[in-house]
């Protein structure tokens, strides 16, 4: 029988079954009670983690007396892609072939559009068929890269603060993470300085390399710091990786948002390009983080294995939105879109960061991306403030974030979540704000943040 009809009998059974979900048996199934069978236990990779920052912040936002919260926390856009991109997505849905599976490596039209967009930046013609692969967002692309190259016990160097998804994505294939912290400028608590002043200790980086080091993850422009790694810094990282033949996974999802010269590590020289996978994201490029379209660019001897892993993880990525992204790339220059992106985000940065200047709170002036890190060293939290236990036990930035949500109704992200416990103190005075929000929201946030005045110590 091909069709499914809801007969009166079936309907009664369905209602009965649905209602019985609420019986104790169903509750037991979902609980962690000891009665739960061993076999139903989740794998270690998804269980036993402490509450993550996103649920702590969302929970705080829901519990806050200041409703609605001004959400400057998570990095999603508060506005739509431009009309020419939305129109491309809508028209793709009307086409039969756009509603079916795409080739696993990506739709030919998008691969060509990516090759056309990136070849001038690479200074040579990229081959759309062997040097680019389309993925389900940058995130799944990076998971595919780790799945493709990491064997259990292989080491991966990750700079702190890190984008949190790297960690589980590396651990899933059994990789071991070796952390190297980025250090804020020494005077970050008293002066507004460029985000470029956050630095890596290159001796520390060299010491992190062992015979087991297989990959290094770089992120530029950087989330959450807003740093764009300079050519000199990239040269030093590249020299280490070339010497030890370490694959560089360069997460460049904010590659169209830079306010200072931006160098792509793959373009330094041939030896570096040979070992580099560059990651991109249509979500970040086109204000559409929910579209889940990303890509990796790299030499065929690396890309083919990323494609192979991607095929096994999700087969192919969402078709109509790949088509829309192809059209977005094709038409971007005609709409002056890349310049508009930089112009608009710079204006938002200037508009929002004026509040820190007004309050005398120092911040890291972003060189790229859409996050700003403000230093709350001067903010004195009330002595006996009632933090819930899961916040009280975390570093000061979690308490700052909780306090801001409860008292002022502004959500921001505590960046110590993106450091290991041992290094969390490095950023415990900082909070990360996402400025990719409509101007009214930025103004609303500023007005609320003026409430900090009474908590500032000199
Ligand atoms: C540094 C960094 N890399 C990757 C991603 C994920 O990109 P996508 O949404 O395309 O998976 C993000 C998203 O916030 C990010 O900040």
From TrEMBL:
Keywords: Aminotransferase, Pyridoxal phosphate, Transferase
Coiled coil: none
Taxonomic placement: Eukaryota, Fungi, Dikarya, Ascomycota, Pezizomycotina
InterPro entries (UniProt xref): Aminotransferase_I/II_large, Kynurenine-oxoglutarate_AT, PyrdxlP-dep_Trfase, PyrdxlP-dep_Trfase_major, PyrdxlP-dep_Trfase_small
GO cellular component: mitochondrion
Names of the cofactor(s): pyridoxal 5'-phosphate
SUPFAM superfamilies (alphabetical): PLP-dependent transferases (SSF53383)
Keyword Transferase (UniProt): yes
Domain named Aminotransferase class I/classII large: residues: 69-448
Protein name: Pyridoxal phosphate-dependent transferase
Superkingdom classification of source: Eukaryota
A single MF term (Gene Ontology): kynurenine-oxoglutarate transaminase activity
Transmembrane region(s): none
Family from the record: Belongs to the class-I pyridoxal-phosphate-dependent aminotransferase family.
Pfam families according to UniProt: Aminotran_1_2
């Amino acid at each position: 029988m091909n069709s499914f009809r809801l007969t009166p009998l079936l309907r009664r059974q369905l209602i009965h079954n649905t209602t019985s979900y609420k019986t104790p048996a169903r509750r037991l199934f979902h609980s962690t009670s000891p009665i739960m069978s061993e076999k139903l236990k989740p794998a270690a990779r998804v269980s036993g983690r402490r509450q993550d920052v996103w649920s702590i912040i969302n929970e705080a936002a829901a519990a806050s007396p200041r409703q609605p919260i001004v959400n400057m926390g998570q990095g999603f856009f508060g506005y739509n892609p431009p009309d020419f991109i939305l129109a491309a997505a809508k028209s793709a849905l009307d086409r039969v072939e756009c509603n079916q599976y795409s080739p696993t490596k990506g739709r030919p039209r998008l691969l060509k559009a990516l090759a056309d967009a990136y070849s001038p930046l690479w200074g040579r013609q990229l081959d759309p068929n062997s040097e680019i692969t389309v993925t389900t967002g940058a995130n799944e692309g990076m998971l595919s890269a780790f799945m493709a190259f990491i064997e259990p016990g292989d080491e991966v160097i990750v700079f702190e603060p890190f984008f949190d998804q790297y960690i589980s994505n590396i651990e899933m294939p059994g990789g071991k993470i070796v952390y190297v912290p980025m250090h804020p400028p020494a005077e970050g608590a008293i002066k507004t300085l460029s985000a470029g002043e956050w630095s890596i200790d290159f001796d520390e980086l060299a010491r992190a390399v062992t015979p087991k080091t297989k990959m290094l993850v770089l992120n530029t422009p950087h989330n959450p710091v807003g740093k764009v790694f300079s050519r000199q810094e990239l040269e030093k990282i590249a020299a280490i990786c070339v010497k030890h033949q370490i694959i560089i996974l360069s997460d460049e999802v904010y590659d169209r948002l830079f306010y200072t010269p931006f160098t792509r590590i793959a373009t330094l020289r041939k030896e570096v390009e040979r070992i580099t996978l560059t990651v991109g994201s249509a979500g970040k490029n086109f204000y559409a983080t929910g579209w889940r379209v990303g890509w990796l660019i790299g030499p065929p001897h690396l890309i083919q294995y990323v494609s192979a892993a991607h095929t096994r993880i999700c087969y192919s990525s969402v078709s109509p939105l790949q088509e829309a992204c192809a059209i977005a790339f094709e038409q971007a220059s005609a709409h002056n879109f890349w310049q508009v992106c930089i112009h608009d985000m710079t204006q938002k940065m200037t508009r929002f960061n004026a509040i820190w200047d007004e309050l005398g709170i120092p911040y890291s002036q972003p060189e790229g991306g859409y996050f700003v890190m403000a230093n709350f060293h001067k903010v004195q939290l009330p002595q006996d403030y009632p933090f819930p236990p899961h916040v009280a036990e975390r570093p000061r930035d979690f308490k700052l974030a909780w306090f801001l949500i409860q008292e002022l109704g502004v959500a921001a992200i505590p960046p110590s979540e993106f450091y290991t416990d041992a290094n969390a103190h490095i950023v415990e005075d900082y909070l990360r704000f996402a400025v990719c929000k409509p101007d009214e929201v930025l103004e609303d946030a500023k007005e609320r943040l003026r409430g900090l005045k009474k908590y500032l110590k000199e």
